[in-house]
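# nightly structure sweep
# worker-07 picked up a monomer target from the shared queue
# config: single-sequence mode, recycle default, output format = C-alpha cells
# input follows
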Amino acid sequence: MLSRTCLLARKSSKLPLYSLANRFSSDVAEPKSSKIPLSSGQTGATVLGGVLLATAVSKEMIVLDADVLAGAILGICTYGIGKKVSPLAIQSLDKIHQKH
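# output follows
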C-alpha cells in the first residue's frame, strides 16, 4: 500500500505547474452547477431528520408495520405525482382563465 502511495506521489509531482498570474486572472470565480439537489445549508437539516427518524425507529417509538409503510409509500407517490402534474395543471388553468 505504501509503495502505491509513493508511486502516485512521484507521478503527481511531474504535473505541469501553472503560473500564479494565470491562476488568479479572473476577479470572480463562476459557481459550478451542482447535480446535488440539496444546497450546503439544507444538508444539515436532512441529516438531522434522518438521524432522528433512525433513532425513533430503533427505540421503537415508530413501529414499522404494514400500515405505516403503506402510508409512507402512498404519501411519497402522491408527492411525486403532484410535483410532475402541478405545472401542467397550472398552465391549463391559466389558459382557461385567459380565455374568459
